Amino acid sequence: MVTLKSYLCGSWHVGNGEDKVLFNPSTEEPVAVSNTKGLDMKSALTFARAHGGPTLREMNFVERGGLLKEMSRVLYEQRERLLEISRDCNGATRGDSKFDVDGATATLSSYARLGSKLGDKGFRIDGKSNNLAANARYIGQHVLLPRPGVAVHINAFNFPAWGTFEKIATAFLAGMPVISKPATSTSWLAYEMIKVIVDAEILPKGVLSFIAGSSGDLLDHLGPQDVVAFTGAASTAAHLRGYDSFLNKSTRFNAEADSLNAAILGPDVEPGDDLWNLFVRNIVTDMTQKAGQKCTAIRRIFVPEAHVDALEESIQDAIFDLKVGYPTEKAIRMGPVASAAQLKDVRAGIQQLAAHSDIVFGGAEPIQGLHAPEGKGYFVAPTLLRAKDSHNPIFHELEVFGPCATILPYSGEASEGADLIARGEGCLVSSAYSNNRKWLKDICFSVAPWNGRLQLCSKKVSDSALPPGMVLPNQLHGGPGRAGGGEELGGERGMGLYCNRVALQGDRLMLSKLLGFDL
Ligand code: NAP
């Protein structure tokens, strides 16, 4: 059993409270213990502000990108070991583990490349300068400067690798030190990855700190230049927003929260078309990848009434021989959900939705996972439901964070589809499938404002479009309303969270010399 340690003030620590035990979700065997009670969070913040921040701010983008490149390299060297830990830490299949672990190293590499493009400055110019007087001398220029505080990262349980490093990549490149806190239940993988980085001695003092479990009183000690980037449930985000520092010190808070992501089929697409097959593939991927525990997974499937039976058959065919179990071999295509608490929530959620639906396949009953000990493991069957009434609010409000999606029949009219999608009150991503430009245009302009990302699929991209659930470093991740209202990634855009925009006014020549840009 591994004892998870926290890396604070440049050394490893274990708390003095009762251990919290982490379990292999396929076997329910204990795998690690976490204990952060009594750790000095105030000093951790002070240390990162005093050492990590100044060092990073002195470095330019190329140098910061160099750190990210090294991090990616040393993690990649340990890839096989990390993939195995991922399996036993959160029940991930090899494919799911790659999605998480390779997603982390790829995002670090992507931001490393961005660093080399941004060049030998440590801050960015925002837009062109403006003349502020009749002469051309007195100008105003907006600049984006790294905040002289600490970026506190609070992550959800479902992506212990990617979630940790996608945030670190943007914060480091922007010039802020990080204190990273994974969700306790799957923190083992994040711990092992942070340990690889610390052991490699590639980061300057105070740049990276890590809390292996509960963050204690950390949020009580935040200051006005600190940032919290949170990923998790909307209810947790709502609770955290009430902290004094966010209310009274303008500590920045970014939330990536729940989302009832939608996929909508246009009335022109027929069963068996290329677009139909793409639609089915994307639904099946999102229901089963990471056992449906993806914030971007399709939860609501809008289909013209005439095609509901055919869609149910297509999804059923695609999922027919899917094997669920302990992912010790390739044949297993779906693992368990990540924890006992998750299992309880997912089963309760399926029961709630099923009370207003017909079950096409699956359900809330316990199932035996292949290769798992008899009666053990947090396994749930992939579950497809058909709503009895697509307007019932439960389908637009209850996020079941597991291998479950609901078919919501609609008329095929873009206006009705858009109205139903908007009832989710803000999504991370939605996808629409049609070759009818008028229908796609209507959907685009009515649905886009309710989403952080909108994938418009027509036959020209039916063989190249990525699954909508895949988050890319150069595309925005986040969404309005219920999805948290936050923004991460999107290339340079993601760095905005960690910077202050300042309008500098003065003599053009003096500002040009001082900033090192030709204004
Ligand atoms: P969660 O229960 O809200 O926990 C998220 C994180 O918040 C964990 O690290 C948790 O730490 C921490 N936390 C909880 N209470 C806290 C407090 N009072 N002070 C400081 N930290 C606190 O969510 P989850 O169960 O891990 O994740 C599932 C949810 O996340 C789903 O609703 C899903 O939609 C959402 N999600 C969203 C995205 C996105 O990008 N939008 C991505 C993934 C997941 P402990 O584990 O130590 O309690």
What is the topological layout?
Layout: E1 2-3, E2 6-8, E3 11-13, E4 20-23, E5 30-34, H1 41-58, H2 61-77, H3 79-90, H4 94-118, E6 124-131, E7 138-146, E8 151-154, H5 162-174, E9 178-181, H6 187-199, E10 208-210, E11 227-231, H7 234-241, H8 244-248, E12 252-256, E13 261-265, H9 274-288, E14 298-304, H10 308-319, E15 323-324, E16 332-334, H11 340-354, E17 357-361, E18 383-387, H12 394-397, E19 404-410, H13 414-422, E20 427-433, H14 437-447, E21 451-457, E22 476-477, E23 488-489, E24 499-507, H15 508-515
Parallel strand pairs: 1-5, 8-9, 8-11, 9-10, 11-12, 13-14, 13-20, 14-19, 15-16, 18-19, 20-21
Antiparallel strand pairs: 2-3, 4-5, 6-7, 7-24, 17-18, 22-23
Helix pairs in contact: 2-4, 2-5, 3-4, 3-6, 4-5, 9-10, 13-14
Structure description:
It contains 15 helices and 24 strands. It has helices at 41-58, 61-77, 79-90, 94-118, 162-174, 187-199, 234-241, 244-248, 274-288, 308-319, 340-354, 394-397, 414-422, 437-447, 508-515; strands at 2-3, 6-8, 11-13, 20-23, 30-34, 124-131, 138-146, 151-154, 178-181, 208-210, 227-231, 252-256, 261-265, 298-304, 323-324, 332-334, 357-361, 383-387, 404-410, 427-433, 451-457, 476-477, 488-489, 499-507. A 7-stranded mixed beta sheet has the order 17-18-19-14-13-20-21, with helices on both faces. Strands 10-9-8-11-12 form a 5-stranded parallel beta sheet, sandwiched between helices. The chain is globular and about 70 Å long. The structure holds NADP nicotinamide-adenine-dinucleotide phosphate (NAP). NADP nicotinamide-adenine-dinucleotide phosphate (NAP) binds at residues 154-158, 181, 183-185, 213-215, 231-233, 236, 239-240, 256-259, 295, 399, 401, 428, 483-484.
